[in-house]
Structure formats: structure tokens, C-alpha cells
Specification:
Blueprint (H helix, E strand, L loop, with lengths): L6 H12 L4 H8 L3 H7 L1 H4 L11 H12 L4 H8 L3 H7 L1 H23 L4 H15 L20 H10 L8 H5 L4
Length: 180
């Protein structure tokens, strides 16, 4: 036999609420399931719309895991069955710190590997030193040799050669007045 909602049953639900009865107690009095009570008498019970979201340890862990893996907030909200605004309201800390926590865990793991032995340790240590200690694969490039002066034309070269032609010869005294 299915339950029929009437003006009388609506008054009964309202009266039971007024006496402080819980939804479960009212459902028992009416002889219906709790879900059916909430569906049929939502107006009397004051249950309009979706019940408020209550975060728990499991949902917080799920949000943190998904956010740390780069899952967009829109998708995280879909998985939880809530609106993005509700997600940000209840999980602000998890959303803001997830990437940092994940980076810290990866860094700790890399550090542990780098402190170990074997080829993986060497690779991890080199990576760590490059990123954290500023090491580089190559030494700084050597300074470039000084630039050569521009080549002289024929006349300029002949004039320059003429100025030093007597250097180191007996003629140098006669040209510039200083002995060899």
C-alpha cells in the first residue's frame, strides 16, 4: 500500500516537527521510508533543494589528490557532485596547497634517491645540484680573443711601414735622432 499525501498528513508532519520529532521518527509514525518522507514532505520539513555539503576526511583527501595532479576545479566539483563555488568554499586550503604539497613530496623522494647508490642516485644528484645548487653542464665560455684592427688600405699601409722602416738599422739615428 503506497502512502498518500493529504492535507491531514501534511498537518500531522508539521505538528510532529513542532513537537521536536526527528525526520526518522516522523517517517516511522507515517510508516514510510525516510527518503520518501523527505521527498513527499520537503516543504513541511524545510528541506528545499540539495542538502548542505559536509566535507569529510575522505573528500578532503580526494580533493587534495586531484588538485595536486592538476585536475581542474570544475572536474573536481563534478566528481564530488557539488558546485565549483561550494568546492572553493569548503576546500579552499586543499585547493591552494595541493600543488605545493605534491612538489614537496616529489622533492623529498628525489632527495632520498639522490642520497642512495647506483645510477639512479647519480642522475638524481646531478639533477638536484643543477636545479638547487646552480650547477651547469659546461664551464663558462672562454673570453673571446680581442678583435683585429680593421685592415688598412694600400696607401695607409705604405705610410705606416714608412714610419718604422728605419727601426733597427743604422738609418734610425738619422730618421728620428736616437742611436740604435
Amino acid at each position: 500500500m503506497s502512502h498518500r499525501v493529504t492535507a491531514q498528513t501534511r498537518k500531522q508532519v508539521s505538528a510532529l516537527l513542532g513537537f521536536g520529532c526527528t525526520d526518522e521518527q516522523i517517517a516511522t509514525v507515517l510508516g514510510i521510508a525516510l527518503g520518501e518522507l523527505r521527498k513527499l514532505y520537503s516543504a513541511e520539513l524545510g528541506h528545499s533543494g540539495r542538502p548542505p555539503h559536509q566535507p569529510d576526511k575522505k573528500s578532503r583527501g580526494l580533493v587534495e589528490a586531484m588538485a595536486s595532479h592538476g585536475v581542474p576545479e570544475e572536474d573536481i566539483a563534478k566528481v564530488l557532485g557539488i558546485d565549483e563555488k561550494t568546492l572553493r568554499k569548503h576546500y579552499e586550503r586543499e585547493l591552494e596547497t595541493a600543488a605545493t604539497r605534491a612538489n614537496a613530496l616529489v622533492a623529498q623522494n628525489l632527495f632520498t634517491i639522490a642520497r642512495g647508490k647506483g645510477r639512479e642516485a647519480v642522475t638524481a644528484a646531478i639533477f638536484w645540484l643543477k636545479v638547487r645548487a646552480g650547477w651547469r653542464d659546461h664551464s663558462p665560455a672562454a673570453a673571446a680573443p680581442p678583435a683585429k684592427p680593421p685592415a688598412l688600405g694600400k696607401k695607409e699601409a705604405a705610410t705606416a711601414a714608412a714610419k718604422t722602416a728605419a727601426d733597427g738599422t743604422e738609418w734610425s739615428e738619422l730618421v728620428d735622432g736616437t742611436p740604435n
